[in-house]
Amino acid sequence: MISEGYDGSWERPNKSLTTAAILGLIIVGIIYYYGLNIVAAIAVFSRGMNYKGGSFLEEMKDTIMATKNPIRLSVMICEFVFMLGPTIWLIKHWHTKKIFSYIRLTRVPVGEILLAVITTILFIPVSSFIGEFILKQLNFPDFLAQIDAQIFTSYTTGEFVWLIVVVCVTPAICEETLFRGYFQRTLERTMGMKSVFIAGIIFGLYHMQPINLISLSLLGILIGFFYYRSKSILPGMAAHFTNNLLAVLSLYKMPDGHPVVAFLSGETPFLGFIASILLSGVFVIVYRQATKKNSVVKELAAETGQ
Hints:
Layout: H1 17-46, H2 56-95, H3 99-103, H4 110-138, H5 142-150, H6 157-191, H7 194-206, H8 213-230, H9 234-250, H10 262-265, H11 270-292, H12 295-303
Helix pairs in contact: 1-2, 1-6, 2-5, 2-6, 4-8, 4-9, 4-11, 6-7, 6-8, 6-9, 7-8, 8-9
């Protein structure tokens, strides 16, 4: 479907929007992947490598601990430069110069955003339980998990705030613009509701975390649902921020290593998993009803490119 409001080079009757969505995602993915690896490598090696004669894994842990702040800074810079930047360029040149309109950076009732946040909070035990279950089944070494967690662990208030900027604010803006604002948005123009599931699964694969693949895909589908129903990127951004904030909060520790918020760091009980499914399911229905009233108006506006 080609709308009159779109005048980019890809907006031609003989060009596939599905191809544009997939090709655009691949292009941005390659730019970001190589850009991040180059910048992170420079950040790490510029600090020097102090080998102490230990095992490879011990050296890796020591290196990450010594260079975690340069790595964090690299991730934040690269998401804005190599992910958000190319995404905006693609939208502007392939589709329309009305970038905010295309990604749906539009106002929505505060209630919709709050519902998205509450639903995400209620859904987190589902994600945690699935991840923990897969971790046990695969016998993933605890040592490797600890190495991965070091980048996201904070021990001071300043470090915690810094991680909120890097891990919560940055992905909520950059990843949502790419996956929902561009990829799902472009697919949605021809696929409708199917775009929610496709974008959600690709979102899970993008993070390249086999243990959390199912959890991240389900989260991507949930955020995509918020985007599809509200016709705004804001509820999804709020949900993405909330999910990552709780993850960072669960790894916020006191100097002695004990978690600041203990209940977020414990193992998810089976009853908590079941309750999470039921409660988040109820709030998904509530969200659907809350957005039903003006969904027709939003659909018409979306179809005309407004």
